Amino acid sequence: MQDNIVAKLRDGFPYGLFMSWDTDHSGKITKDEFERAVAEMGLPSKPSICHRLFDFFDKTGDGELDYQELYRHLVDTPAHKADAVMKKINKAKK
Ligand SMILES: [Ca+2]
């Protein structure tokens, strides 16, 4: 069973963390940066899960996440909703 990445990312999400994820300092997180961030936090995840999670967060569909976008999903997501999100992400697996 996969750890709940959504809940764990949410638990430690100050702005400084976002900045550290944004390795090219573009002010936005790309899929690659996101994937690296998840790995750096020591969270077990397949690239496919990361991609789906990223696409889920990326409501505007521009391939990048800004701080507001991420914050809304991570910090404003109650624990029970984080579970629902992970369930959905895992279920989408093919
Ligand atoms: Ca960036």
Structure, explained:
The protein is mostly helical. It has a single domain (5-91), classed as EF-hand (Recoverin, domain 1). It has helices spanning 5-11, 15-21, 31-40, 47-57, 67-74, 79-91; strands spanning 28-30, 64-66. The two termini are 16 Å apart. Bound molecules: calcium ion. Calcium ion binds next to strand 1.
Strand and helix layout:
Blueprint: H1 5-11, H2 15-21, E1 28-30, H3 31-40, H4 47-57, E2 64-66, H5 67-74, H6 79-91
Antiparallel strand pairs: 1-2
The chain binds calcium ion (CA).
Residues 22, 24, 26, 28-30, 33 line the site of calcium ion.
Give a quick rundown of the structure.
The chain has 94 residues and is mostly helical. The chain has one domain (5-91): Orthogonal Bundle (Recoverin, domain 1).
Quickly name the level 1 CATH class: Mainly Alpha
Number of domains: 1
Summed over residues and divided by their number, the pLDDT gives a mean of 85
Q: Order of strands across the widest beta sheet?
A: 1-2
- Under CATH, the homologous superfamily reads EF-hand
Bound molecules: calcium ion
Shape: globular
Order of helices and strands: HHEHHEHH
Count of alpha and pi helical runs: 6
Low-confidence stretches: none
Q: Compute the CA-based radius of gyration.
A: 12 Å
Question: What's the helical proportion of residues?
Answer: 55-70%
Query: Structural class, judged by helices and strands?
Result: mainly alpha
Taking the alpha carbons of the first and last residues, their distance comes to 16 Å
CATH topology-level name: Recoverin, domain 1
